[in-house]
Amino acid sequence: MENNAKPALKTVEQFSKDNPAFTQSAMRNIIFKAESRHTSKGVIQGNGLIESGALKRLGRKVLIDETAFYEWIDSQQSGVI
């Protein structure tokens, strides 16, 4: 039997409510920095959140895959605590 479980997708507001360590403004900042962007100093690389599959976009709506987001956080750890 195949595993057809759908990811738990949440809006920024829902995600922040369920995960109080991440405020809405903090999440919007992380999402803003997800894509590479051009500045007067050159290109600033994105943080890898999009490549991880944690963000889904439907037009202007941004949905967060909670499981993939936490996997992305784990991948950001360099072994230093």
Describe the structure.
This protein has 81 residues and is of the alpha+beta class. The protein has one domain (9-75). It has three helices and five strands. It has helices at residues 12-18, 24-32, 66-76, and strands at 9-10, 37-39, 42-44, 55-58, 61-65. Strands 1-5-4 form a three-stranded antiparallel beta sheet. Strands 2-3 form a two-stranded antiparallel ribbon. A hairpin with a 2-residue loop joins strand 4 and strand 5. The longest helix is centred in the C-terminal third of the chain and has 11 residues, at 66-76. The protein starts with 8 loop residues before the first strand and ends in a 5-residue tail after the last helix.
Write the layout of secondary structure elements.
Blueprint: E1 9-10, H1 12-18, H2 24-32, E2 37-39, E3 42-44, E4 55-58, E5 61-65, H3 66-76
Antiparallel strand pairs: 1-5, 2-3, 4-5
Give a short overview.
The chain has helices spanning 12-18, 24-32, 66-76, and strands spanning 9-10, 37-39, 42-44, 55-58, 61-65.
Strand content: 15-25%
Distance between the termini: 41 Å
Number of helices: 3
Can you tell me the number of structural domains? 1
Structural class: alpha+beta
> What is the average of the pLDDT values?
89
Question: What sort of overall outline do the alpha carbons produce when their principal axes are compared?
Answer: globular
Uncertain runs with pLDDT below 50, 5 residues or more?
none
